[in-house]
Amino acid sequence: MLQLSSGEDMVPRVQTDADVDAENDVMLDNPDMLALPTGNRYADIKDGLEPGYQGSRRRCMYRTCAICSILGIIATACSIAAYNIAWSDWAQTPEWLSYERAKWLSHTQAEFGLGAQVTVAGRHGTVIWDGRPANQHIRVRWMDENSESADIPVSSVKAVSTLPQEIYKPVRDHVLYIGIISPPSNAEQRAIARRMWVDAAKDYRDGCVKVEFLIGQVSIQGDNLGGTTPPPTAQVIATEDEKHLETQLQSEATLHNDISRVPVVESVNFETDKVLWLLSNAVYWKARFVMKINDNQKVDLDVAMATFLQRSPIAQPIYFGKVQAWAHHQPGMYCANFQSKDRSVVSLDECEERCGDSCAGVSYSHLSLATENCLICSDDRLLKSESGNFDFYRKPVWQRESSTRFLDSQCYGISGDLAHKISANHMLNSNEYASDDTMHDSISMAKWVAREDEDRKHYQLLPVKHLRLPELCRILVDTDIA
Predict the structure, then answer these.
(1) What tens digit of pLDDT does each residue of 5-22 get?
(2) What DSSP string describes 399-462?
(3) 133 upstream amide cis, omega within 30 of 0
(4) Which residues contact 377 (CB under 8 A, 6 or more apart)?
(5) Are 142 and 128 a contacting pair, CB within 8 Å?
(6) Of 228, 395, 420, nearest to 317 (Cα)?
(7) Is the distance from CB of 215 to CB of 182 less than 8 angstroms?
(8) What domains can you pick out in the chain, each with its CATH number?
C-alpha cells in the first residue's frame, strides 16, 4: 500500500506490514474509533451522503430509460423497414395483382358480362364480346335477327337483370359448407351418415363446417279424383303413402335441424337444379368453400381442412375433388394411330391428363416394367394387343368439346367466390341446359367452371385452379356402420 510522506516534496513510500500492525494496535487500544456514529452525528453523515446517492441513482435511471428508448426506436424502424420490404414483394405477387384487378373491375364494369342479356335502345341482345377495360365497347348478338352487332359503347347498354359483380366476402370462420344430395325416401341412409360422421362434423373446430341434406319436393303421383282414366284436367291428390313421407320429412327436419328443402321436384332430371340451390345456400351462409356429395359418401375433414386453411383469402378460385375416371372401353386393345408415346407415366390418371384437345382417348398398360405404357390416341381405330397388356380408354364425349376435366359426380367442390358467380349467373338459366347437363350435375359444374375460367382469362385475372384430392371422400361401407 502506498502512502505519502509529510514532507513538502510529497515523496510516496510503501507501507510495510509493521506499519499496518501498529495501526491495528492503536485502534484496539481506542474502542471509540471502532464504534459506528450515532445520534446527530449519524444523521449529519446520512444527510451529507443522501443527495449524492439520490443524484447518482437518478442519473442511472435516466441513462437506462434513454438506452431503452433508443433501442425501441431502432426496433420500430427495423420493423417498418421489414414490413415495407415484405409488402413491396407481396404487392407484386400474381394473387394480389389479380385480386386488385378484380376489385377494380367490380367498380368500373357495368352490371353485365359475357353471355349476359342486355338492351340497347330497347333492343335485346346477348353479349358475345367485351372489350373492357382497354376498350369501352361491347358486341351483342341480337335476339330478333340472330345477327352480330357492331361495336356498341358501354354507356348505352343496360343489363336486363342485375347480377352481383362485387367481391365475394365470406365469413372467416365459415370455412366449409357441405351439401348432401339425398332423395326424400333415404331416411335410413341419412341416419347412418349422421351416426358415422355428419353429427361430428357439425362440431368440427367450433362450428367452422356446416352440413345440410338437400332434399327436393316429394313427387305427387297421387290418386285421380276423376276416376281410373281421368281427362288431362282431372285433379290429382297425394296418396296416403306420399302424405306420410312428407310428414316424416318434416319431423326429421325438426328433430335434426340439418335438412334444407329445395323447390325442385325429386327426379334425376333435375340434379343440376339441386346443385344450384346448394351453391345458393352456401353463398347465403358466406362459406369460404363449398362441397357437393351424395348421402352414401363420407368426407375426410382433416384432408379438406389441411387444404383449405392454408389458402390465402385473396388466392385464385379453386375447383377440387376426386377425378372422374374415364369409362373402361376396350380391354386388350390399343389405338393404331397415336400422337406420342410416354415412358415416364406412372398412373392412368397421369396418362389421361396428357390427352390434349385433339386426343380421342388413351391406351395404357398397367405393367410397371412397360417401357412405353401411355399412347395418346389420334382416333378410336383400335388393334388387338398381342401381349394383352394395353387397354383403351375413350375420352368422354363432353370432354372432347371442352378442355376442362370434370370431377367425380359424388364428391367435388369449389371455392365460395366461384359459387357466388355461378349461382348468380346460372340460377336463372337452368332451363337452357341440355339433357345431359340436367341429369349429370358434375358435367354442368365442369362447364360452369370452364365458362368462369374463360371470363377470368378475358379480364386478365388468374385462372381457376384445379386441385385433385383423391382422399377427400369415400363410400360408407358395412365396416363403417358396424
Answers:
(1) 444 455 555 555 566 566
(2) HHS-SPPPEEEEEEEEEHHHHHHHHHHHGGGGGG--HHHHH-HHHHHHHHHHHHHHHHHHTT-P
(3) yes
(4) 335, 337, 338, 339, 355, 359, 360, 361, 362, 363, 392
(5) no
(6) 420
(7) yes
(8) 2-29 (no CATH), 111-159 (2.30.30), 176-325+403-481 (3.90.550), 328-395 (3.50.4)
Q: Are 287 and 210 in contact (CB under 8 A)?
A: yes
405: left (phi over 0), alpha (psi -120 to 50) or beta: beta
Q: Are 220 and 242 in contact (CB under 8 A)?
A: yes
* 3-state secondary structure at position 65: helix
Angle at 241 between CA 235 and CA 247, to 5 degrees: 100
| Cell of residue 284, nine digits | 347465403
The secondary structure element, H or E, covering residue 10 is none
- Element housing 471 (H / E): none
Q: Look at phi and psi of residue 151 and say left if phi exceeds 0, alpha if psi is from -120 to 50, else beta.
A: beta
What residues have CB less than 8 Å from 46, skipping those under 6 apart?
none
Would you say 160 and 119 are in contact if contact means Cβ atoms under 8 Å apart?
Answer: yes
- 359418401: which residue's cell? 297
Q: What is the total residue count of the chain?
A: 482
pLDDT greater than 80 at residue 280: yes
- pLDDT tens digit sequence for 53-83: 566 777 788 788 888 888 888 888 887 777 6
